[in-house]
């Protein structure tokens, strides 16, 4: 764990010196604000919650997180520093964890910077702040899931563009099961076990319960399993790269 913290500090310093980090945060905050105040009609709704933000967050993450995720390994390969990193006297999983936690911290920071929206709805009404905090927790876990996918694909890809596109596509694949009803796919006519499988696989259904202020152990386990599986896969990819 100590070695992972060393990598974490190294990565956070790197993010603080990279303009792409600040561009990501600025774009995320701008689109979050627009989605709430313009598309979500925050003032006109007369309902004290952040549902407009939580409704748009899966789509913002789908579009924006690949840009952060590609930097985890594709950037190291481009700069040539990956060879040095892999020769350090620490195991690959510690490196993977350190890089993932650093990027996840940046995503968490950008999420925290939307807190003026929470302050605004507290000024306008009396929201259920517990549900609000649970929604933020779910948003952070969702970010971790997208990011873990991106870390693995960034380790596999040879360049930024390939990593970005593949992360977007796989992220979309995990959203599709919950989009089938909106696409007029008759999910209700499917066998119960099959429709339940679609619901259990999809990212949005697990996030939706958080956005409604509900903590379900199944959703926590889902995100934990999703993040763990992709980080283990990333470690396996890095080990294969070492052996080449």
Model description:
The chain is mainly alpha-helical. The protein has one domain (2-177, 214-243). It contains eleven helices and no strands. Helix 5 (92-112) crosses helix 7 (129-156) and helix 10 (203-211) crosses helix 11 (217-243). The chain is globular. It starts with a helix and ends with a helix.
Summarize this, please?
With 244 residues, this protein is an all-alpha fold. The chain has helices spanning 2-16, 19-39, 51-79, 82-86, 92-112, 115-124, 129-156, 160-179, 192-201, 203-211, 217-243.
Share in β-strands: under 5%
Number of H- or I-type helical stretches: 11
Mean pLDDT: 83
Order of helices and strands: HHHHHHHHHHH
Radius of gyration: 19 Å
**Terminal Cα span:** 27 Å
Structural class, from secondary structure content?
mainly alpha
Q: Please count the beta strands (DSSP E, at least 2 residues each).
A: 0
SSE order and pairing:
Elements: H1 2-16, H2 19-39, H3 51-79, H4 82-86, H5 92-112, H6 115-124, H7 129-156, H8 160-179, H9 192-201, H10 203-211, H11 217-243
Short key terms for the protein model shown above:
244 residues; mainly alpha; 11 helices
């Amino acid at each position: 764990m100590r070695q992972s913290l060393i990598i974490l500090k190294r990565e956070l310093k790197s993010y603080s010196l990279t303009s792409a980090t600040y561009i990501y945060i600025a774009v995320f905050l701008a689109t979050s604000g627009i989605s709430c105040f313009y598309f979500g009609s925050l003032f006109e709704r007369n309902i004290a919650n952040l549902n407009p933000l939580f409704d748009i967050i899966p789509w913002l993450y789908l579009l924006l997180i690949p840009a952060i995720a590609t930097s985890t390994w594709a950037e190291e390969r481009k700069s040539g520093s990956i060879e040095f990193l892999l020769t350090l006297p620490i195991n690959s999983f510690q490196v993977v964890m350190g890089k993932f936690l650093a990027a996840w911290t940046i995503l968490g920071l950008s999420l925290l910077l939307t807190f003026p929206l929470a302050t605004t709805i507290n000024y306008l009404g009396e929201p259920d702040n517990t549900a609000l905090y649970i929604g933020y927790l779910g948003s952070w876990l969702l970010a971790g899931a997208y990011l873990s996918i991106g870390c693995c694909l960034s380790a596999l890809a040879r360049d930024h563009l390939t990593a970005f596109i593949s992360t977007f596509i796989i992220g979309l694949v995990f959203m599709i099961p919950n989009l089938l009803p909106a696409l007029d796919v008759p999910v209700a006519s499917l066998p119960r076990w099959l429709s339940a499988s679609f619901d259990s696989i999809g990212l949005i259904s697990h996030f939706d319960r958080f956005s409604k202020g509900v903590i379900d152990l199944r959703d926590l386990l889902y995100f934990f399993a999703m993040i763990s599986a992709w980080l283990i896969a990333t470690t396996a990819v890095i080990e294969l790269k070492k052996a080449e």
